[in-house]
């Protein structure tokens, strides 16, 4: 149980996918302008990370490893995740239109996002059990959510700030992102020592 | 050779399986989209102004194709042209659009009223409203910093003598200014509602009088004069019920403050 909590918390804070591992920077910079789109995107990411792990973990364990095909991991994972997300989108559109409206537009954006692929591959590399892998994906998704929501707050402040002309727009956004990322480095070592 | 095959075949099988699954799913769970929708959407101007009362042009197009009772003449910026195209596309009878024009319900220009404070802040009515409740003596009136003029897509609003004035021929009736005004002073009026109470002050008569020479003091003279029971004084302010008003202009003649005006729209 303690191990699960450590995995969850370190995925959220220490190994935050956006701010420490620098995966999924594209949606982080692209969709973080407004709080509501940032939340929608993050919820979609949490959802996709969970189902991708649930599907790719058995594929790795029962298909790729027994046949000594580990080197096909990346391409098979991309294939499966892309198909799966498409399937989920079609299903949502048919059965839960309201959810499709709020989540659906972000789903195709993250079909083969590197953060999603990264979670599934790192779960295998870390040698997690299935349960640990699922907890890790949940934590990674929550970490993405935290980063997105925080950064959309930072960006809304930036909008009203008096910024030198040459820094306006993307440059100041990148600087702000790097400072936010630096602040997350401060979590290093905290979680392990909490339970030590 | 064998090494290549052992790599290619599993990936191929997985790919074909995924593709098959998606094909079946898209057939099974296809959502029928009305084929008229893209055509209807094409007719609309795409300004997403919301004057029709729906959430943008997509929302209106969707309402048109799904609900037959939605009239095809709600697009005010598009005017008669769009209404005609829409009625042709949908096969319904053509009805002309009632042209609407924005009217500012305030006559408190610098001749009639004066500033309460010397405002040196941000050039925005919304900002001034937040700090002092407006810079003028009348808390209900036009602040005159031109949020509506900046929002207007047709530059149909100008600030003259400290209040916003709409230039009717330029106004397309999109209603963007209506949403922008922090004091909710602007509303849309058409040919059937040309008589307008040009004041929004709900203070008692004496208070209004001190603040502005053109303010409605709630004397109820218009109410007594109206033969059609169309004008009522509520909260010290005359309000016209346009379902009853026939635009005879009798109330405008008797108005003590001269704040009931008949506009040429």
Structural notes for this entry:
The complex is a heterodimer of chains A (196) and B (265). By secondary structure, chain A is an all-alpha fold. Helices cover 73% and strands 0% of the residues of chain A. Chain A has one domain (14-191). The radius of gyration of chain A is 18 Å and the shape is globular. The model of chain A has no long low-confidence stretch (mean pLDDT 86). Chain B is α+β, with helices and mostly antiparallel strands and 265 residues long. Chain B is 35% helix and 11% strand. Chain B has helices at residues 2-28, 36-43, 56-66, 79-90, 125-132, 147-151, 176-180, 205-211, 221-225, 250-254; strands at 101-104, 157-160, 163-166, 186-189, 195-197, 231-234, 237-240, 260-262. A two-stranded antiparallel sheet of chain B has the order 1-4. Classes of the chains: A mainly alpha (196), B alpha+beta (265). Chains A and B meet through helix 4 of A and helix 1 of B.
* SSE run of chain B: HHHHEHHEEHEEHHEEHE
Q: Which chains have the largest interface? A: A-B, 20 and 15 residues
Residue share in helix of chain B: 25-40%
Principal-axis shape of chain B equals elongated
Instruction: Please count the beta strands of chain A (DSSP E, at least 2 residues each).
Output: 0
Distance between the termini of chain B: 83 Å
The proportion of strand residues of chain B reads 5-15%
Total helix count of chain A?
9
Structural class of chain B: alpha+beta
The amount of beta strand of chain A, in percent, is under 5%
Oligomer: heterodimer
CATH architectural name of the largest domain in chain B? 2-Layer Sandwich
User: Which shape of chain A, going by the Cα principal axes?
Assistant: globular
The side-by-side strand order for the widest beta sheet of chain B comes to 1-4
Number of strands of chain B: 8
Q: Count the DSSP helices of chain B.
A: 10
Number of domains of chain B: 2
Helix fraction of chain A, binned, reads over 70%
The radius of gyration computed from the alpha-carbon positions of chain A, rounded to a whole number of angstroms, is 18 Å
């Amino acid at each position: 149980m303690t191990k699960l909590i450590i995995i969850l918390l370190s995925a959220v804070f220490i190994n935050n996918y956006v701010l420490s591992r620098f995966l999924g920077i594209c949606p982080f910079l692209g969709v973080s302008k407004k709080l509501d789109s940032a939340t929608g995107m993050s919820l979609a990411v949490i959802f996709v990370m969970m189902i991708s792990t649930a599907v790719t973990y058995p594929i790795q364990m029962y298909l790729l490893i027994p046949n000594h095909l580990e080197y096909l991991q990346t391409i098979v994972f991309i294939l499966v995740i892309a198909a799966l997300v498409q399937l989920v989108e079609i299903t949502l559109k048919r059965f839960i239109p309201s959810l499709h409206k709020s989540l659906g537009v972000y789903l195709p954006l993250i079909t083969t996002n590197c953060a999603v692929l990264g979670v599934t591959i790192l779960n295998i590399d870390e040698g997690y059990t299935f349960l640990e892998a699922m907890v890790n994906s949940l934590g990674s998704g929550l970490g993405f959510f935290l980063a997105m929501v925080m950064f959309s707050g930072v960006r809304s402040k930036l909008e009203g700030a008096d910024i030198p002309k040459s820094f306006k727009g993307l440059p100041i956004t990148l600087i702000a992102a790097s400072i936010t990322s630096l602040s997350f480095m401060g979590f290093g070592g905290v979680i392990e020592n909490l339970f030590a | 050779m064998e090494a290549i095959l052992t790599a290619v075949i599993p990936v191929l099988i997985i790919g074909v399986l995924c593709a098959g699954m998606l094909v079946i799913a898209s057939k099974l769970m296809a959502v029928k989209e009305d084929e008229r929708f893209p055509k209807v959407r094409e007719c609309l101007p795409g300004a997403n102004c919301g004057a029709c009362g729906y959430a943008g042009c997509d929302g209106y197009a969707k309402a048109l194709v799904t609900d037959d009772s939605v009239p095809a003449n709600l697009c005010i910026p598009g005017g008669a042209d769009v209404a005609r195209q829409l009625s042709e596309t949908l096969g319904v009878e053509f009805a002309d659009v009632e042209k609407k024009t924005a009217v500012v319900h305030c006559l408190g220009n610098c001749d009639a009223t004066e500033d309460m404070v010397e405002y040196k802040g941000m050039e925005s009515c919304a900002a001034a409203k937040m700090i002092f409740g407006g810079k003028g003596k009348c808390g209900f009136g036009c602040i005159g910093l031109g949020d509506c003029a900046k929002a207007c897509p047709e530059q149909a609003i100008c600030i003259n003598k400290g209040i916003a004035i709409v230039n009717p021929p330029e106004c397309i009736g999109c209603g963007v200014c209506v949403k922008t005004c922090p004091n909710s002073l602007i509303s849309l009026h058409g040919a059937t509602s040309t008589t307008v109470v040009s004041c929004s002050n709900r203070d008692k008569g004496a208070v209004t009088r001190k603040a502005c020479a053109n303010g409605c003091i709630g004397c109820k003279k218009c109410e007594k004069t109206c033969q059609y029971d169309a004008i009522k004084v509520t909260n010290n302010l005359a309000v016209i019920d346009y379902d009853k008003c026939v635009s005879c202009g009798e109330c405008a003649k008797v108005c003590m403050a001269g704040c009931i005006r008949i506009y040429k729209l």
